[in-house]
Amino acid sequence: MKSKKKKSRLPFLAQAGPVSAWMILFVTIPMLFIIFISFMSRGTFGGIIYEPSIKPYETLMDPVYFKVILKSFEVAIITTVSCLILGYPFAYYIAKKPPETASRLIMLLMIPFWTNSLMRLNAWMLLFQTNGPVNNLLISLNLISEPVTFIYTDGLVLLGLITNFLPFAVLPMYASIEKLQKSLLEASADLGAKPSVTFRKVTLPLTFPGIFSAVILTFIPALGTYTITDMLGGGKVLYIGNIIKNQFGATRNWPLGAALAVLLLLITALLIFIYTRFSKLDDMEVL
Amino acid sequence: MDNKIRNKKTRKHRAGKVLGDIYAVIIYAIFYIPVAVMIFFSFNNADRNYYWQGFTTDWYVKLFDFTNKDLWMALGYSLLIAVLSTIISVTIGVLGGIGLKKFEFKMKKFIGLMIYIPIIVPEIVMAVAMLIIFMTIGIKLGLGTILIGHCTFCIPYAVITIKGRISGDNETLQEASMDLGANRLQTFWRITIPTIMPGITSSAFLAFTLSIDDVVMSNMLAGASQSTLPVLILSMNRTGITPDVNALTTLMVAFMLVAMLTVNGIQRARAKKEKRLLAESDAIISANKK
Predict the structure, then answer these.
(1) pTM of the prediction?
(2) Is the pLDDT of residue B28 over 90?
(3) How many CB atoms lie within 10 A of CB A151?
(4) What is the pLDDT of residues A192-213, one digit of tens each?
(5) Which helix (H) or strand (E) covers residue B166, if one does?
(6) In this model, does residue B132 exceed pLDDT 70?
(7) What is the pLDDT of residue A3?
(8) Which residues on A lie below 8 Å from B131 (Cβ)?
(9) Of A181, A234, A166, nearest in space to B33 by CA
(10) CA end-to-end span of chain B
């Protein structure tokens, strides 16, 4: 009897065991530890002194850092809204195609992302150089007389962010539009609703989970990025991600870096909590 | 009158369709322009890529002179990491995907939530959290820590892909296999694995592409060890990227495209063969019935 019970535990341990252990060891524990560290003191030469302190969080309120935080939020919000506005019609366009064509179109969307992401960002730099193709074109069209400085500006960073995160907005919205039942739209039209009314009262509310997934999958990574801002902002434009990274490089203020990371964690947790109020996490269509 | 309205409607409809097509082309252009520029600048006759200075194929030749050792070392290291993290994360992902679908246990909900953390939380947060732990415990940064970092964001995608692949059919087949006398391991290898094979290939592909393109984890968790290719590119950005990097990344995407098309072709051929066999067996069964 006992051996039978033992035997039936084995497949369970072999299958659910590794993933559970991995997630607890390398996700749960590091996350808890970084929260713990954010309430500790900074050592004189970097590192951590285990004395409780709320100094890291006070430092976040310091105008120098607070400005960066506000700016990062502003940029992340602009990125998210742009991705939604650009992405929704595009997702709609794909979803209305026959399934075979739609899956091809989605594939076509993914292929550019197999190229090195930094080289794609670098390509935007090459296009927008001071004497580069875009400036030359604008001058030859007589739209400008002097080359405009695009590189290392917020505008170019924004372009990089939007082009980088747009597919992550398109995919979940596409999935939810595709699931939308045609009969509901027809019913709405039959009952005399204009297409614009049907869109506002039927399509938009029913695809809201997809829209909110898109918000989560663009806003949070946009808020935490440092490679895009580093490549296109040339390190001149600082965002939360750059500040966190710097605390573990030259600046060596671990608790401050941890506090900023906890801020990002809190925002993530809040958005996920809101999402789970009206939809299941497993329906998020992150792929 | 009625006809006129209908005409107007179809015209409006058609105009909308054209507008939609134009819009889609613009969006695709936004995605493909940087790729085209990247490829274009691999033919640039300049020491470093800032401006276009004329056409040359020299960079492809120079690439295979292996004079730029740093670049090849970085690529080798990236490939090694990508292959290892693909193997580890797909293995754990397949087992975990099946396990999380099949079994009920206390922590299941919690683990299900944890799986979404590496996907949603900014990578810098994950990287920094791991870095602090490794530094505190005193684990030396290097290949091992990079692998742990990469697997942590690859495993969730694998688990989710595999979980989505397992359906009710799968369980019926498994039960049938066990009833016919196969043991658990035989059933796993000969029934479960083949039925989720498309999920395995797509999660392997995803893990590989995520790992080989990763900058943040590789940068934070590398310590003093060799740089991966993306980390090398990030460090070159300030001083200007040499066109041989463009040549290399162009070849890499070409290779991926070929690999993807081949895998797709094989899968399609296999599906076709299966369909044919099924039709044949159906024919035999119905002939026997007569």
Answers:
(1) 0.84
(2) yes
(3) 18
(4) 777 777 777 777 888 888 888 8
(5) none
(6) yes
(7) 44
(8) 248
(9) A166
(10) 61
CB-nearest to B23 from A19, A90, A245 is A90
Q: How far apart are CA B213 and CA B42, in angstroms?
A: 19
Query: A-chain residues within 8 Å CB-CB of B35?
Result: 112, 115, 120, 123
Rg (CA), chain A: 24
Fold entry, domain B69-241:
MetI-like fold (1.10.3720)
DSSP B196-254: THHHHHHHHHHHHHHHHH--HHHHHH-TTSPPPHHHHHHHHTTT---HHHHHHHHHHHH
Interacting residues of A55 by C-beta distance below 8 A, sequence separation 6+:
A41, A42, A255
pLDDT tens for each residue of B169-204: 667 777 777 788 777 778 778 777 877 787 888 888
pLDDT over 50 at B240, yes or no? yes
* Weakest-pLDDT range from A145-154, B69-78, B249-258: A145-154
Q: Which residue has the tokens 């979803």?
A: A95
- In degrees and rounded to multiples of 5, residue B87 shows phi and psi of -60, -50
Cα(A31)–Cα(A33) distance, integer angstroms: 5
- pLDDT of the residue at A2: 42
The Cα-based distances of B214 to B140, B149, B154, B218, B225 in angstroms read: 20, 10, 11, 7, 16
Cβ-defined contact of A22 to B99 (cutoff 8 Å): no
Tens digit of each residue's pLDDT (9 = 90 or more) over A65-94: 888 899 899 999 999 999 999 999 999 899
pLDDT at B121 over 70: yes
Interface check A287 vs B, CB under 8 A: yes
By C-alpha distance, the chain A residue nearest B125 is A261
What is the Cα–Cα distance from B191 to B173, expressed in whole angstroms?
7
| Contact flag A248-B128 (C-beta cutoff 8 Å) | yes
Distance CA A238, CA B228 (A): 24
Whether residue A18 lies within 8 A of chain B, CB to CB, comes out as yes
Instruction: Flag whether pLDDT at A142 surpasses 60.
Output: yes
Mean pLDDT within A177-184: 79
Any idea what the Cα angle at residue B218 is, between residues A119 and B62, rounded to 5°?
45
Nearest CA distance, A68 vs chain B (angstrom): 16
What's the CA dihedral at B48, B54, B56, B58 to 10 degrees? -30
A210 CB-near residues (< 8 Å, 6+ apart): A91, A172, A173, A174, A175, A176, A177, A285
Domain extents in chain B? 69-241
Q: Which residues contact A265 (CB under 8 A, 6 or more apart)?
A: A31, A34, A35, B121, B125
Residues 63-82 of A with CB under 8 A from B: none
List the domains of chain A with CATH numbers: 62-283 (1.10.3720.10)
Q: Whose CA is closest to B35, among A159, A112, A168, A106?
A: A112
Cβ <8 Å between A112 and B107: no
